[in-house]
Design goal:
The complex is a heterodimer of chains A (264) and B (341). Chain A is mostly helical and 264 residues long. Chain A has a domain at 61-217: Orthogonal Bundle (MetI-like fold). Helices cover 78% and strands 0% of the residues of chain A. Classes of the chains: A mainly alpha (264), B alpha+beta (341).
């Protein structure tokens, strides 16, 4: 019994080390002054100062956030609207909507990007604009995850029951949906939005195919400069990781406080 | 004069007809219970009155006005749902204020009305709690307060106690009845629990397969069931074909219809009693079950099983396989219609 526990503990440590090792090494490497032999020869903040004063990198972060947030917002609004219609007016269409929303999960992101590029690149429409194209590809890319998150949240709060109860008190269904249902599912909504945001913020493959020369994000900056100063790049990776962690923590913390208040 | 009138109401979901020409009137200030098994159409009828379902055929009148096609928001009907449907992002007070704010009442009045409603349901100390912080019983009381605070003309209760444990359910039954009487609000209560219907109602409307089976006061329904379904659903009656009844009593042509006998009207004894105006027959105890203060016996009489109740007293305890005499007054053998199969 004791031996089993010990073995399990050992396995956990091995897995944790295996997963965390690249991160730890990158972290240490980003502070190392010179690292030629087994141990670094000293530590410095120079690479962080250099990276944080690099205009291209900072602009890349802002661009990366913009190109991630906008599609996530558009997708959330679209799916919330579609599911409102399904729940309130056309419940028979639920299966169809589900199929449409989940289809993108079966298509590889690269194939999706090249197909869209081939279809719209020379069309002369607004969709030929690379930024617009990228935004809509991202919308499609995050649709399955967003749909599943929102759908589960809506059913877990008994949406139809709430809308009917509010209707009996004189409120329009659409108003109740916006003022009662959406705030009630906000924790779930934000969680799925965050996951999508993280996935898009970390993408460089799709952006490279669609708009790398026109729209450089922090990820494509890293990709472009991968053969230059590797310590400065490590610092950039750590900075991006910290930004993602801060975003996650802020949203989780605010929701946690709200949840604690509601169910204490 | 009727306050609510259902006139020939029919309703179908695709090919399934759930309401078949319901005619029903409800008086002002009364509590009417729609009782019936699952799928009999009681909730659908309630939702038609609320305006949450469209009526297929027929008309609904409320206080003399035709409301068949009036929007649910304009009907001035309050409703309590089975799953409470409280607004999870709002405190108890905000839940209650919701309907009053839509009516655009002044702030002072809203505060006063909410305080009164909270006091009525005994939740004054919970006004800042969120629904997730309340027990099932408390949530149901909030739902009730939220429905009555807007002063509706009619209160609809759709199986509001079905998710609550037995003990709490009993206290809430009393509480709902008290509040209904205090406000003198016309109320329609939906349940599939006959005991609940008997306790709470002024009148009971028994539904079966989308049709009105019988309507009357609890005592009328209990003592004078018109059909074998009503007899079986309401009072655990023993229901016999007339041929079976002849076999039990050993007499020919005693009653030419189906016969219903309540278990508690049958007397069990060791000896024959030789009573006038009563049927007496011998049987063998097959099984006995304790139901608290009452013992229910299953007795075999000429191959037919009869259920009989006796108060839990030492002289009324009979062992299995014991021979007993059963006696039932002739006026307690009710003639009932057997419904077409």
């Amino acid at each position: 019994m004791k031996g089993d526990k010990f073995l399990k503990g050992i396995w956990k440590v091995i897995v944790a080390v295996f997963l965390l090792l690249p991160l730890i090494v990158t972290f240490v490497y980003s502070f190392a002054e010179r690292w030629i032999y087994i141990l670094p020869e000293g530590f410095t903040l120079n690479y962080y100062i250099q990276t944080l004063t690099n205009e291209n990198f900072l602009l890349g972060i802002v661009r990366g956030l913009c190109i991630s947030i906008i599609p996530v917002v558009i997708t959330n609004v679209c799916i919330l609207s579609a599911l409102y219609l399904v729940i309130v007016h056309v419940p028979n269409l639920e299966k169809t909507v589900q199929i449409f929303c989940l289809i993108p999960s079966t298509v590889n992101g690269i194939i999706l990007a090249t197909s869209v590029l081939a279809t719209y690149a020379g069309s002369g429409t607004i969709f030929a604009n690379r930024i617009v194209m990228l935004s809509f590809i991202y919308c499609v890319f995050v649709m399955p995850m967003t749909y599943q998150g929102i759908r589960n949240s809506l059913y877990s709060v008994n949406t139809l029951g709430i809308l009917e109860a509010a209707e009996m008190l004189g409120s329009r269904k659409i108003r109740s949906y916006v003022t009662i249902v959406i705030p009630s599912i906000l924790p779930g909504l934000l969680n799925s939005a965050l996951m999508c945001l993280s996935a898009l913020f970390g993408d460089f493959a799709i952006i490279k195919i669609i708009a790398s020369s026109q729209y450089e994000t922090a990820q494509s900056y890293l990709y472009k400069n991968r053969h230059t100063d590797t310590q400065a790049l490590s610092a950039a990776v750590v900075i991006l990781l910290v930004i993602t962690l801060i975003m996650n923590y802020t949203v989780h913390r605010s929701q946690q406080i709200k949840n604690e208040k509601r169910s204490a | 004069m009727s306050f609510i009138k259902f006139e020939n109401i029919s309703k179908s979901f695709d090919t399934l007809k759930v309401l078949k020409g319901i005619n029903l009137e409800v008086k002002e200030g009364e509590l009417l219970t729609l009782l019936g098994p699952s799928g009999c159409g009681k909730s659908t009828l309630l939702r038609c009155l609320a305006g949450l379902e469209e009526v297929g055929e027929g008309r609904i009148y409320l206080d003399g006005k035709d409301i068949t096609y009036v929007d649910a928001r304009q009907r001035r009907i309050g409703m309590v749902f089975q799953q409470y449907s409280l607004f999870p992002n709002m405190t108890v007070r905000k839940n209650l204020e919701f309907g009053l704010k839509i009516k655009k009442l002044p702030k002072d009045q809203i505060r006063k009305e909410v305080d009164e409603a909270l006091q009525m349901v005994g939740l004054t100390d919970k006004d800042n709690a969120y629904p997730g912080q309340l027990s099932g019983g408390q949530q149901q009381r909030v739902a009730l307060a939220r429905a009555i605070v807007v002063k509706p003309k009619v209160l609809l209760l759709d199986e509001p106690l079905s998710a609550i444990d037995a003990k709490l359910r009993k206290s809430l039954q009393t509480e709902i009845r008290r509040i209904q009487k205090e406000l003198n609000i016309t109320t329609i209560f939906v349940t599939h629990d006959q005991d609940e219907a008997m306790i709470m109602s002024d009148r009971i409307c028994l539904l079966k397969e989308g049709k009105l089976e019988q309507i009357g006061t609890p005592i009328e329904i209990y003592t004078e069931p018109k059909t074998t379904f009503a007899a079986g659903f309401i009072g655990n009656y023993n229901v016999f074909e007339h041929s079976e009844f002849e076999k039990i009593t050993g007499e020919k042509n005693v009653l030419p219809v189906s016969v219903a006998i309540r278990p508690e009207t049958i007397t069990i004894s060791k000896e024959k009693k030789e009573e006038a105006n009563a049927y007496e027959f011998k049987g063998k105890v097959v099984e006995s079950r304790s139901r608290g203060n009452v013992l229910r016996y299953v007795i075999d009489v000429n191959g037919i099983r009869i259920e009989a109740d006796a108060l839990f007293r030492s002289f009324s305890i009979f062992q299995d396989n014991c021979d007993v005499w059963l006696s039932v007054a002739k006026h307690d053998c009710l003639s009932v219609e057997r419904e077409a199969v």
